[in-house]
Amino acid sequence: MSELAVFANLSPAAVWSHFARLCAVPRASKQEAALRDELLAWAAEKGIAATVDRGGNLILRKPATPGHEEAPGVILQAHLDMVCQKNADSDHDFSRDAIVPVLREGWLVAEGTTLGADNGMGVALILAALADETLVHGPLEALLTVDEEAGMGGAHALAADALQGRLMLNLDTEVWGEFYLGCAGGLDVDVRRDGEGEPLPAGWSVQRVALRGLRGGHSGVDIHQERGNAIKWLVGLLHDLAEVMPYRLVDLRGGTARNALPREAVATLALPDAAGLADWLATQQLILREAWRGVDDGVTLALDAASAEQVLDDASQFVWLASLHAAPHGVKRMSRSVPGVVETSNNLGIVDVGPAGGSANFMVRSLVDRAALALADEIVSLFALSGTAAEKSGHYPGWTPNPDSPLLTTCQAVYRREFGADSTVQVIHAGLECGIIGAKYPGLDIVSFGPTIRGAHAPGERVEVASVARCEQLLRQILRELALTGNVR
């Protein structure tokens, strides 16, 4: 099936046509310009007013359907960028290659890469709504942000006077039938340490140990499932290996995105005698598979010959391996005010260490701002013990739930009328841009919803086709209800 044919019979056609466009144009974080330029040309062709703000965000405006000019202005919000993850055996180049999805049992899937349904489906739903001449609506604004996945830079840069609407529908959640009313805030801890490097000891062999096959996933949505972290697992193995045989670390690399659970990590080692290493790793693979049965029992440990000229100096090797071994990862605390939801967590998402120095990134999330800052301070303090620089950056506020939201009441009533069932209300541990935007626009009433997406931030990401049609229907009817009533309920 061709790249375009997979979309041919999907409904609603307008939404899938726009998503096909997004699949065709690479859009990694901080590299959204090509897609934004294409959408600017599309807006000009449709007669839709479009501007690009100082942060690179695309803002589109469409006047109200005649007769509904006094209806409350609605902001439709999603982000243009996607998390770029691929399997080790994939030759996909996210800087130039189109995403190639397949249709399987009612789901659109990207098998060897991420799909970009997060948040491409939200963007596609918004573009389809703007282009629909039959849609009844009040004044519409679309805020399509950039750099969401790599630090929410677009939302941070949004000016406080860029938008006029007083209601906002965010389309960046991933479970159909749920309205989201709050989310975690967070920040990053970036660790850096310089190294001197030392010559490879004479006569030593160099071997590369690769840990692969973990499920990965979204560091907010999936953090409570206790899936494996390839970096933590490999560092733990290196800690145990030191009790078995001497080695020197050449390099250690793992993870490719701060907000994705690391699926792979690789360490290059220099050893005076590698005999027994392959057998030891085979035993460790069996132990890991048994210990993580049903969660990450697809883990593999591979050993290959490598080459190197330098190794880490003794002090750097000790600091990196001991600190990463001791560093926290995962759920810190569950929420007491929102049962079943993670309050505070952290993801050790990226490590890149070599003889000349290295870096690591921790992404901290919490529903409570002070708890996020406290956990970040713990990580900074851990690395400070060895004189290693660790800096906090990119703090963004959480989105505080408002259970009395009039917009939520309207959304729930429309959902019940259209689908004959009650929706649910949730608070999500993942970070949405709603908290940042809401802080810039006090009083802005915000609700988030979207189609069902599974495996976001990992290869195999998929979106349920039927839920996209339901989501488009819901969006149309909410906008119609707001236009007809003139006010939220």
Describe the 3D structure:
With 489 residues, this protein is α+β, with helices and mostly antiparallel strands. The chain has two domains: 5-184 and 399-485, Aminopeptidase (3-Layer(aba) Sandwich); 188-396, Alpha-Beta Plaits, CATH 3.30.70.360. Helix content is 29%, strand content 26%. It is built from eleven helices and 23 strands. Strand 16 and strand 17 (342-354) form a beta hairpin. It starts with 12 loop residues before the first helix and ends with a helix.
Characteristic key phrases:
489 residues; Aminopeptidase; six-stranded mixed beta sheet; 26% strand; Alpha-Beta Plaits; single chain; alpha+beta
Number of extended strands: 23
Briefly, what CATH class of the largest domain? Alpha Beta
Q: In the CATH scheme, what's the topology name of the largest domain?
A: Aminopeptidase
Quote the distance from N terminus to C terminus: 47 Å
Mean pLDDT: 95
| Shape-level CATH architecture of the largest domain | 3-Layer(aba) Sandwich
The helix content is 25-40%
CATH superfamily of the largest domain: Zn peptidases
Spell out the blueprint of helices and strands.
Elements: H1 13-24, H2 33-46, E1 49-52, E2 58-62, E3 74-79, E4 102-104, E5 107-109, H3 117-131, E6 140-145, H4 153-157, E7 167-170, E8 178-183, E9 185-194, E10 198-199, E11 205-212, H5 230-241, E12 248-254, E13 265-271, H6 277-291, E14 300-305, E15 310-311, H7 314-326, E16 330-334, E17 342-354, E18 357-366, H8 369-384, E19 389-396, H9 406-419, E20 424-428, H10 434-440, E21 445-448, E22 453-454, E23 462-464, H11 465-485
Parallel strand pairs: 3-6, 3-7, 7-21, 8-20
Antiparallel strand pairs: 1-2, 2-6, 4-5, 5-23, 9-18, 9-19, 10-15, 11-13, 11-14, 12-13, 12-17, 16-17, 17-18, 22-23
Helix pairs in contact: 1-3, 5-7, 9-11
